[in-house]
Amino acid sequence: MVLPHGGKLVERLDFREERREEAFELPRKNISLDEARDLANIGHGVFSPLEGYMLREDFENVLYEGRLSNDLPWTIPIVMDISRKEIKEIIEGDQIALFYKDEPMGLLEIEEIYRYDKKLYAEKVFKTTDVSHPGVAELMKKEDFLVGGKITLLKDPPSDFERYRLWPKETRILFKEKGWKTVVGFQTRNAPHLGHEYVQKAALTFVDGLFINPLIGKKKPGDFKDEVIIRAYEVLLDHYYPKNSVVLAVLETEMRYAGPREAIFHAIIRKNFGCTHFIVGRDHAGVGNFYGPYEAWDIFREYPDLGITPLFFRSFFYCKRCGGIVNEKICPHGNEYRVDFSGTKIRKMFLRGEKPPETMMRPEVAEVIAQFEEPFVK
User: Fold this and answer.
1) DSSP summary character for residue 158
2) Which residue(s) pair with 104 in the sheet?
């Protein structure tokens, strides 16, 4: 099986009750649900080789080079912001407790407190400082300082999808039990249309297993809600996929919408789960017109040492002349024969109370989505 990123799966866990009780005696920092989720991702090795929040050297190296200071590929800063007021109450060398809703979730050993430039961060990671970009908008809300250091996870955050929450240690055992030597990972923040299905099945023809790993967490308005995505995939897998070839599990983290850099980040995460291959689609992790349609493909050329094989697929569409699902590489017919699987078009149909045709989405999937009064994030 493919080794975790950096060669070792990180595990920073201590679920003993006495450790949680100790947390109440420490300086407290309140964190959001998405921050609690990423705390758990560090603790369980989803973000291996990170053992905590980045120190300045790693942070700046990631911004400028897209690599950690030891030259290991890494493209998205994993950091904890902190306010000027909070800084006055702690010093480097202290340990603080991270609380979500009055529950101690983790401990942070403060190794470094440093200021950072948000505009520089935005330019390097998102390739724009435009606040109409959702990732940039979220970044600009953060505090002006960062705190770095190793963490200890005391408790997993709550989840509405406990049935589908698997950590890398568990997926690696599961893939091994299934006899899968090659596994392709699929990242999604959408309910599946036929284009998604055909990309997944095309990739599955080359490997032993398919790992469908929807992102659960903060998303921009207009994206599908988490529960809609999961319900849609449940019904799709029930009716159209071989049971012994697919695993569905959630990735609980926020969307950054960082395009090419997030594509690399998503690949690294799936490598940690045990995937040998990773599907990179058109405009992966993109938003609006901030990135070119295949810019996320190009960045993989900069990372021959990534340790996971990207699979590049052009968008599929339904061709009325071909009478089936094809893409531009194999279909000779013009646009007038194409039915594109446009997410915007599908979203507008549901908002009008219409169901997409069977040439765009499986009827069982469309029916599930239609049952939700409001299937989209507001």
Assistant:
1) P
2) 99
DSSP string, 309-360: EEEE-PPEEEETTTTEEEETTT----GGGEEE--HHHHHHHHHTT----TTT
Structure tokens at 89: 């109450």
* Catalytic-residue membership of 189: yes
d(C-alpha 171, C-alpha 177), whole Å: 10
> Would residue 190 show up in a list of annotated catalytic residues for this protein?
yes
Pure H helices in the chain: 17-23, 33-43, 56-65, 84-87, 118-125, 134-140, 168-177, 194-204, 226-240, 260-273, 295-298, 343-351, 363-370
Spatial contact of 186 and 160, defined as CB atoms under 8 Å apart:
no
pLDDT value of position 1: 84
Given the residues 12, 20, 189, 261, the one annotated as active site: 189
Euclidean distance between the first and the last CA atom of the chain, given in angstroms as a whole number = 41
Token output for 240: 């159209």
DSSP per-residue letters across 254-322: -----THHHHHHHHHHHHHHT-SEEEE-TTTT--TTSS-TTHHHHGGGG-TTSSSEEEE-PPEEEETTT
Domains of the chain from N-terminus onward: 17-153 (3.10.400.10), 162-370 (3.40.50.620)
> Which candidate in 190, 213, 282, 362 is catalytic?
190
Q: What is the pLDDT of residue 267?
A: 98
Q: What is the pLDDT at residue 352?
A: 94
